[in-house]
Design a protein that fits this description.
This protein is an alpha/beta fold. Among the domains are: about 445-500; about 510-580, 2-Layer Sandwich (GMP Synthetase, Chain A, domain 3). About 55% of the residues lie in helices and about 10% in strands. The protein is built from 24 helices and 14 strands. A seven-stranded mixed beta sheet has the order 3-2-1-4-7-5-8, with helices on both faces. It has a three-stranded mixed beta sheet with strand order 12-13-14. Helix 4 (about 90-100) links the parallel strand 2 and strand 3 (about 105-110). It is globular, with a radius of gyration of 26 Å.
Length: about 575
């Protein structure tokens, strides 16, 4: 009975803590920021932005990530610095090739063999950026970080540029890409990030707590980073911390730097956020989460203790209470299951001992708090992923208790083993994947809205065209037919919508033997022309956005990853006549 009582008291305290955050979210006054219009974003001068991308064994995804993001970003004054290790030759080749195709991509070579740590790699990338500044006489005013699996929102840099005028650190929301309900492990990330970005972080900011960086899509003012470097012997990011992003956010706040979490907003149902796939398998999820627990809870406790203003101590408590809660949650699940089975089948055979009245009341309160919190999570999840996906959140929460419990045990084991051996914790890097095709519910806006943002048509012209176009004719085709836009406008919008780069490759890249890799009949029907193989991927020209069916069909023929490139119909036909014999 004492075990049940102790467990109930802990769950009640933790639950009331979570309920407090929920009540603040709903009933406390919300500090609204002045949200810029599209016209205001276009008018503000573009400050120079550096994107830092640390890499280790990312050759399978980095080329596609750079190609996609560079083709969709609606910003011109930026450069990408990609950090590579000397013992990672495939990634070096992939980044070097990307830099040859895109002048704004710059490889930065870390001097030591990898992997060291993400913080160490970022520090070397920052030094490489400084050398670039000295060599070309430029200065980057905003620094942002991204990973090799990120799908950056097209307006992300424009919002960083806007808000970083007033804040030293700006965090753009980060959300997992949607997956099916059957992918229960990845669904845990969808639930937790939707709730965290919708509720917890805004409340944290409202109550004056420090803002932990998400590690990606974080924009830092240059002056703030230089102040931080001056206090850390030139090291901006902590190279010994597994969660250098969390550490950086805390240290900037402690220095008095202003921080902003950009509220989660939707444009035509699409969130303004960086999207990515998180681990979709159990082992990978436990590995990643054990790093988070070790870095945030254990290393944070070790480095900062419980010192600081009371507001920060409260957030330390919330960040670290998982050390206990994650271990007790699976036990709670087991006791709940045992109680249900005993009540249904075993009451007469082995009655349970009497329970004190106060404990009964405690359990009733816990049940009420749990139902409120569960409803809150479902609502947050539904905002991003829809009600059908959100309805399964209660089942995913039970599975999440198991995953978090295993991750916490792993973090404790790794931490105490490292301290016993007097060495630093190893960097448990996550293996990344990149979507071969981006579905409409992930990041695509309707092409008409993109044309409006490009100022090719007005909103009134678009609405009139949508009403008057003939059935079966796509809006882009109709706008060309009615001479509202050019073919060039349409293909620029399609490239921005899909993340597929636009334009014919260099003639030196065309490999005649590769162009005949597919049967001519399939190539004509699918309107694709393969033109080269690089880094285990087949590069394919296409005149239309490829469907999932076409992607599957092409992969079945070549067994390689497929990367597409958009070309205009006239360019496609000219090349097709050279590659395929004319049909009789």
């Amino acid at each position: 009975m004492w075990l049940l009582a102790t467990l109930a008291i802990w769950i009640l305290i933790s639950g009331l803590d979570d309920l407090f955050v929920t009540l603040v979210f709903w009933f406390a006054g919300r500090k609204e920021i002045a949200w810029p219009s599209d016209a205001e974003l276009a008018k503000v001068p573009e400050r120079r932005i550096a994107i830092l991308v640390p890499l280790w064994n990312e050759h399978r995804v980095i080329g596609q990530m750079l190609e996609r993001n560079l083709s969709v970003l609606r910003y011109s004054n930026y450069d990408v610095f990609a950090g590579v290790y000397p013992n990672d030759e495939p990634t070096i080749r992939a980044v070097t090739e990307a830099s040859r195709l895109h002048p704004r991509v710059h490889p930065v070579h870390c001097p030591q063999p990898g992997p060291t740590s993400k913080g160490d790699c970022l520090n070397w990338i920052y030094r490489g950026m400084q050398e670039f500044e000295e060599r070309f006489g430029v200065r980057f005013e905003v620094i942002t970080t991204h990973d090799a699996e990120d799908l950056i929102h097209p307006d992300s840099l424009r919002h960083l540029n806007w808000f970083s005028r007033d804040y030293d650190m700006v965090q753009i929301p980060v959300l997992p890409l949607p997956t099916g309900v059957h992918e229960i492990t990845h669904g845990i990330y969808c639930d937790e990030f939707a709730e965290f970005q919708s509720k917890d972080i805004p409340v944290r900011q409202r109550l004056g707590g420090f803002l932990p960086s998400n590690g990606v899509a974080t924009g830092f003012g240059r002056a703030a980073l230089e102040r931080l470097a001056a206090r850390r012997q030139g090291q901006i990011f902590d190279r010994h911390c597994l969660t250098e992003d969390y550490e950086t956010g805390y240290r900037l706040h402690a220095m008095g730097c202003s921080q902003l979490f950009v509220p989660l907003r939707f444009d035509s149902g699409i969130p303004l956020a960086t999207r990515e796939y998180f681990p979709r398998k159990l082992r990978a999820a436990i590995r990643q989460r054990s790093r988070w627990v070790a870095g945030i809870a254990l290393q944070g406790w070790e480095r900062h203790g419980w010192r600081g203003p009371w507001r920060q101590l409260y957030w330390f408590w919330r960040d670290r209470k998982g050390l206990v809660g994650n271990l007790l949650a699976p036990l709670t699940n087991v006791l709940f299951l045992y109680g249900g089975i005993h009540t249904r089948f075993g009451r007469a055979a082995a009655p349970l001992p009497p329970v004190p009245h106060w404990l009964v009341y405690c359990c009733v309160i816990i049940l009420g708090v749990t139902l409120i919190q569960m409803s809150m999570r479902i609502w947050c999840c539904a905002r991003v992923y829809g009600w059908m996906f959100a309805a399964a959140a209660p089942l995913r929460m039970l599975w999440g208790n198991v995953v978090n419990g295993a991750a916490t045990l792993g973090a404790l084991r790794q931490f105490w083993k490292a301290r016993r051996q007097q060495r630093n914790l190893p960097w448990l890097k996550t293996d990344h994947v990149y979507p071969s095709q981006i579905s409409p519910d992930q990041s695509r806006q309707p092409v008409g809205q993109i044309l409006v943002k490009m100022r090719c048509v007005s909103l009134e012209e678009l609405e009139q065209a949508l009403k008057s176009r003939p059935p079966g004719l796509r809006i882009g085709e109709y706008l060309i037919y009615s001479q509202r836009i050019t073919e060039e406008n349409l293909y620029q919008a399609l490239s921005s919508q899909s993340g597929i780069p636009l334009g014919m490759p260099e003639l030196a890249e065309l490999n005649p033997s590769v162009t005949r890799m597919f049967p001519a009949e399939i190539a004509r029907r699918s309107k694709v022309i393969p033109y080269r193989v690089s880094a285990g991927e087949l590069h394919v020209l296409t005149v239309e956005l490829p469907s999932s069916q076409i992607v599957r069909e092409l992969v079945s023929f070549c067994k390689l990853g497929v990367r597409f490139r958009l070309v205009r119909p006239a360019e496609f036909e000219t090349l097709a006549r050279k590659c395929w014999p004319q049909p009789p």
